[in-house]
Specification:
This is Battenin. Its main location: membrane. InterPro entries: Battenin_disease_Cln3 (IPR003492), Battenin_disease_Cln3_subgr (IPR018460), MFS_trans_sf (IPR036259). Pfam families: CLN3. It is a single chain. The protein contains 16 helices and no strands. By secondary structure, it is mostly helical. 48% of the residues are buried. The radius of gyration is 23 Å and the shape is globular. The chain has one domain: Growth Hormone, Chain: A (Up-down Bundle).
């Protein structure tokens, strides 16, 4: 019986169900990678974007677009600051996403998924083209806005799309978005490190949006009844009217009180959204407010190179933790939020007093920061998917994604006075 058992086990690896599962998992992994790639690259390139514009607007500056001098000629600060904080790029990178996430869940279900993907691909490709050929700050910011629009609309759509597949694709999506961080930051840092200009590097990355097209249209295997190119209404006539009337009555009952369990959906969703928002507020306060100021002189990396590899270390942590859902699940999201706040306070003190002896210690802290952020992200959506009813799940997955964007937007606003204060020293 042993050979027969082995043969059955071997054949099950190539069964239609396994084949479908493998293709869908791979498809969502690539969709996560492609969706977040442009967003990550714009943040990794934030310092180069601003340095390029400053040097272009002031011919007396001899700084290259790809690296800082040890002391910025245009700024007397000991922190070697850009006159504009990299949070300006972050704000342009997150505001369109936040607006989309706050408004689109109410109407996005009327747009077929095929059209959503084409829109995301177009916006991502435009972002690389506009930023690579820009000659002014405002043109670069427009390119960043295109990247943000693509990422925000895509995240909303693909998180909702996971509802039509088995729950394991949610882990694939999370791992793919983490992979986007590592691949995007690593490719940008590596290609510029070997001598390619930021412009050429961004043009090479135009291949990523087209990979999204292949992943969605040729790799995924959607259910037979999946509405690819047209919006399908449920039912018409009396049944639809009765259903809508029943839903209206239920909505009125749910508005009465949260303590009586009639508003469980909203009350259950808010802790997830708030905890995720706090994690991302602390996270991006570090990334775009403090990371540029964590500058160690007299080491083999220039200021710009330190910034790029900080971003890469962070993205490695995000990738590892977003891929961990199959191994560990953490329900206590507020603990992750508090630990991330501790990270932000510690690095703020380091910027103020410069007490850490080595840049490698900062790299380790930033890696840990990425681990916390990625863990919070995948566990938030996993438990929302698990604890939300079938009727509300698609909307809940889209609506909850506003938490991280709100945290990032608030962090971007908070970093401006911090940046101005330290750069004035």
């Amino acid at each position: 019986t042993y050979p027969c058992t082995s043969l059955m086990s071997f054949s099950s690896l190539f069964s239609p169900d396994r084949y479908r599962q493998w293709r869908n998992w791979s498809g969502f992994w690539l969709l996560g990678l492609c969706n977040n790639f442009a967003y990550v690259v714009m943040l990794s390139a934030a310092q180069d974007i601003l340095t390029k514009q400053e040097s272009g607007n002031n011919p007396s500056l001899s700084t290259l677009a790809t690296e800082f001098q040890d002391v910025n000629p245009g700024n007397g600060s000991r922190y070697d600051c850009n006159s504009v904080s990299t949070a300006a790029v972050l704000l342009a990178d997150i505001l369109p996403t936040l607006i989309i996430k706050m408004t689109a869940p109410l109407v996005i279900h009327k747009v077929p998924y095929g059209f959503r993907v084409l829109f995301c691909v177009t916006m991502a490709a435009m972002s690389f083209l506009v930023v690579s050929f820009s000659s002014t700050v405002w043109m670069s910011i427009i390119g960043v806005i295109f990247a943000s629009t693509s990422a925000g609309f895509g995240e909303l759509s693909f998180l909702s799309l996971t509802v039509f597949y088995s729950r394991d694709v949610l882990g694939a999506w999370g791992s793919g978005t983490g992979g986007a961080g590592v691949l995007g930051a690593l490719l940008y840092a590596g290609l510029t490190q070997v001598g390619l200009s930021p412009q050429v590097t961004l043009l090479i990355m135009l291949t990523i949006p087209f990979t999204m097209l292949i992943s969605y249209f040729f790799l995924l295997l959607p259910p037979p009844s999946f509405p690819q190119w047209k919006h399908e209404e449920r039912d018409h006539g009396i049944e639809t009217s009765e259903e809508r009337q029943r839903l209206m009555v239920e909505s009125q009952e749910e508005q009465e009180t949260c303590s009586q369990g009639r508003n469980k959906f909203e009350c259950g969703l808010m802790p997830f959204v708030c905890a995720l928002g706090l994690v991302y507020f602390a996270e991006y306060f570090i990334n775009q407010g403090l990371m540029e100021l964590l500058y160690f002189r007299n080491i083999f990396l220039t200021h710009a190179e330190q910034y790029r590899w900080y971003q890469t270390s962070y993205q490695v942590g995000v990738f590892v933790s977003r891929s961990s859902l199959c191994c560990i699940k953490i329900r206590k999201l507020w603990a992750l939020a508090l630990l991330q706040v501790v990270n932000a306070v510690l690095l703020l003190l380091e910027v103020s007093y410069q007490f850490l002896p080595s840049a490698w210690l900062v790299f380790a802290i930033i890696l840990y920061e990425g681990l916390l952020g990625g863990t919070a992200y995948v566990n938030t959506f996993y438990f929302i998917s698990k604890e939300t009813g079938d009727r509300q799940r698609e909307f809940a997955m889209a609506a909850a994604s506003v938490g991280d964007s709100m945290g990032i937007a608030l962090a971007a606003v908070a970093t401006f006075p911090v940046h101005r204060y330290f750069c004035s020293l």
